[in-house]
Amino acid sequence: MANVWIAASDGNLDAVKAFLAAGTPVNAQDENGYTPLQAAVSYSHADIVHYLLAAGASATLGNSDNETPLHYCESVECAQILLQHGADINATNAEQRTPLDAAIDDENEELCAFLESHGAVSSGIVTEETASLAQLQAMMQAQEAAEAAGINMD
C-alpha cells in the first residue's frame, strides 16, 4: 500500500491501522488537503470511517477547497456516522456549495433525501452539473445581452 489515502480509498482497514500505528497523523492532508476520512467516505467504507473517527479524525476538517468529508460522502450510512461526530450538514466549500449540492451533482437521490430530512439546504448556485438545458440557455442569453450592452463579464 503506497499511502494512507489509498488504503482508505481501497477499504483496506488493516493498512489504515498500520499507517496510523507507524505515525501517520489521523488528520494527515495530502497536497490538496485531502484527508484519509475524505478518502474513506468517498468510497463508502463505513468501517474505516468509524475507525478513523474513533482515532480522532475530524468530521469537519476541510481540504484546500474547504470541502469537508460530508461533501465527499457517497452513502447514507457514512453521512449518518459523520453527523453523529459533529459534521456540519450545511458546511460550504470555497464556492459556497454545500454537501447537498455535491449529492445533487452526483445524482445521489437517497443521500439527497437523507440530507434534506436532516435540515440540509442547497446553496442554489447553478453549475454545469446541475443546470438544466433551459437554465444554461437563459444564462447564455443573459451573458450575451450583458456583453451587447458593453458590460465586461470577466
Give a written overview of the molecule.
The protein has 154 residues and is mainly alpha-helical. It has 2 domains: 4-123, Serine Threonine Protein Phosphatase 5, Tetratricopeptide repeat (Alpha Horseshoe), CATH 1.25.40.20; 126-154. It is built from 9 helices and no strands. It has helices at 4-10, 13-21, 36-42, 46-54, 69-72, 76-84, 99-105, 109-117, 133-148. Helix 1 (4-10) packs parallel to helix 3 (36-42), helix 3 (36-42) runs antiparallel to helix 4 and helix 4 runs parallel beside helix 6 (76-84). The longest helix is centred in the last third of the chain and has 16 residues, at 133-148. The N and C termini lie far apart (45 Å). ANK repeats lie at residues 32-64. Pfam families: Ank_2. Keywords: ANK repeat, Repeat. This is Aste57867_17919 protein.
Strand and helix map with partners:
Elements: H1 4-10, H2 13-21, H3 36-42, H4 46-54, H5 69-72, H6 76-84, H7 99-105, H8 109-117, H9 133-148
Helix pairs in contact: 1-2, 1-3, 3-4, 4-6, 7-8
Calculate the terminal CA-CA distance, rounded to whole Å.
45 Å
| Spans where pLDDT lies below 50 across 5 or more residues | none
Outline: elongated
Which fold name corresponds to the CATH topology of the largest domain? Serine Threonine Protein Phosphatase 5, Tetratricopeptide repeat
Our count of domains comes out at 2
